[in-house]
Amino acid sequence: MDIVRVSFTGRVKDTGKVFDTTYAEAAKKAGIFNEHLSYGPTPMILGENRLIPGLENALSKMKSGEEKTVVVHPKDAFGERDPELVKLVPLKVFKANGINPAPGLVVVLENNLPGRVQSVSGGRVRVDFNHELAGKALEYELKMDERLSDEKEKIRAIFELVFPRIPVKELKIARKEKELELVLPKDCTKLEDLQVRKIGLVKYLKKVVGEDKIQVTEEY
Question: 14, 103, 128, 190: most buried, per Cβ within 10 A?
Fold first, then answer.
């Protein structure tokens, strides 16, 4: 399992539309800026199937400081569009869930798949459950900022992935022989899903530090 920090901008190849980026100014220009996200070199885990295959394959071959542009075709991205994933859903299903459907609205129904409303007509709603980037070739501008080798830097990167909006500088890390001790920042105690996140954190930490004893606590 490799842990890296990457800067990138992803575009739809045919249109040039930016759909994701680690650069704040590029996000603002594309109209996708999110004040709740942190911009800058982003930690990524390779070898865990967390990324689309084409992107992971490209990153796995890059060295620290290297920059490149890669094109990822649908089969190595979000797949081809499946006509069977375009469904006609009775309007009453939306009403029962307190949803007023309108074209462009993203909804999650009984199948737990996010879908985009295409049209509303005659008591039926046409919903596309394909990924919005399905069937599209993507172009990524990539910069491999760093391949992490230091254990503490890897731990901090994993923390950023599991707790994306918590300042990593407040994470306390200590090692005592074969025991790793982490004290989570106080802001973590405000999260309703803290215990679930802690389990995820430990899962990845075990792959970084081996089978050492891991103690994760939080300050109140």
Answer: 128
Q: How far are the Cα atoms of 43, 115, 183 from residue 169, in angstroms, in the given order?
A: 15, 38, 12
- Work out whether the CA dihedral 63, 65, 66, 69 comes out positive or negative: positive
Question: In the chain, which segments carry CATH 2.40.10.330?
Answer: 83-128
Distance CA 26, CA 33 (A): 8
pLDDT digits (tens, 9 = 90+) for 139-151: 999 999 999 999 9
Q: State the CATH class of domain 1-80+133-149.
A: alpha beta
CATH (residue range 83-128)? 2.40.10.330
Closest CA to 28 of 9, 42, 52, 48: 9
Tell me the pTM: 0.84
Separation of alpha carbons 66 and 142, rounded Å: 8
Whether 133 and 144 have beta carbons less than 8 Å apart is answered as no
